[in-house]
Structure formats: C-alpha cells, structure tokens
Amino acid sequence: MGVLTALASYGFIRNTQTLAEASRSPVDAYLMLGGSIRREIYMAEVVRRESPQNIPILISQGSQDPCIVLIFQRALASMSNVWLEKCANSTFGNFYYALPILQQWGVQKLKLVTSGSHQKRALWLGQIMLGSHGIWVELEAVSEKGVPANRESRLKTTLDITRALGWAIISQFRTPSCHAVIPLDDVNLAQWRERGFSCEHQGNLQ
Question: Where is 30: in which H helix or E strand?
C-alpha cells in the first residue's frame, strides 16, 4: 500500500509539473463540442481570421457533416486541418473519445470551444479528463441566440464530474478509440445532397 501511495503521489506531482509547463506554451489544438451550429460558425471564423493552419481542429459530434462543410466554405475558411469525431453522444463522450486523438497529435495545450451556457460543466470535465493526462485546457465561449441543445442541471453536472473523476483514474490504464474520425476535406457534399440533409435554421444554409 505504501508503494502504491508513493507511486500515485509521484504521478500527481509529475502531472502537475507537466500542466504548469503546458499552461505557458502556445495553443496547439482546438476542440469544439457539438450542440449548436453557432459553434461551427464561430470556429470557421476563427480559422478564416487567424489561419491556424498548423493547429488541428477536432469537432466532436457537431452538426451534420455537409452543414459544417457549407459553413467553412461560406466563411472562406480552410478545411485542410479540421477533423470530425462522430462517436460521442454526450459531453462526457466528447472528452472520452477526444483524449486518444489529442494524445496522438501530441497536444499539450488545448482551446476548448463551446457555448457560454455549457462552459462550466464542459471546462470542469475537460480539466479533469484531459488534465489528468497533462493537457492544459483553456475555454473560449461562444455566444448563443436562443436556447442551445445543451441543458444544464446540478444533477447532470454532479454525475458527470463523478464519472470524470473515476475515468481520470481508469484511463491511465485503458485507452478508448473512435473509428469514426474523418477529415472535413473528405466529406462528399454531392453525395449528401443526393441523400438529403437539414441544418439548424440559425446556420442560414441552403
């Protein structure tokens, strides 16, 4: 028991040092959580305005693929380094599936993009689930018009944080994977138009 305690303490100290160093480094990836098309619109504007061509962008279970393509095309934003993760179905899942991708990219400092109404729970989960692996998380909140899909409650937040704390330990020994990760460049807009799709009205897309 003493050895395990010592190892756990050593790991905690090392991770704290890693986070402290990462906090001083430049942002090397974006993680955008799905739930509102306003977030994709914001992300496309960031890409167009700042041109972070060498910084990968992961959109975790966002709007339908063709809607995201149309948003980036309208904004004249590059799609060359934008990836879509289609496995998550919750905020917890966003980080659960994003972690191995971010680790593969060698991310140390992350910019987390979500809605203002969702920011507290998202930031707490990100700091726990990604921070436990040495990834520093900074938040960028997107303003909303109307009510986004995410609804916050104390119970949901408490359950998610409890689950995140447990996963922060388990994930040191077990790594999940998502096989539905595609480059935005690979989305075939013509095929989607044949199949049919619809986008949130706030996107003003046709």
Answer: strand 29-33
Strand-pairing partners, residue 30, are: 57, 111
Distance (Å, whole) CA 64 – CA 1: 50
Give the pair of three-digit tokens for residue 115: 């809605």
Dihedral sign computed on CA atoms, order 117, 37, 151, 160: negative
Mean pLDDT score of the chain, rounded to an integer? 87
Question: What are 10's strand-pairing partners?
Answer: none
3-state percent helix, strand, coil for the chain, nearest multiple of 5: 50, 15, 35
Architecture per CATH, domain 8-190, reads as 3-Layer(aba) Sandwich (3.40)
Among 52, 110, 112, 119, which residue's Cα sits nearest to residue 82? Answer: 52
> Both tokens of residue 114?
């979500």
Q: Which of 63, 119, 117, 129 is nearest to 92 (CA)?
A: 129
Between β-strands 109-115 and 136-142, what pairing exists: parallel, antiparallel or unpaired?
parallel
Query: CA-CA distance, 161 to 68, in Å (whole number)?
Result: 30
For residue 32, is pLDDT > 80?
yes
Q: Where are the domains of the chain?
A: 8-190
The token pair at 105 is 């990219």
Q: What is the average pLDDT across 119-148?
A: 89
What are the residues facing 51 on neighbouring strands? none
Q: pLDDT of 141-157, one tens digit each?
A: 998 876 554 566 788 88
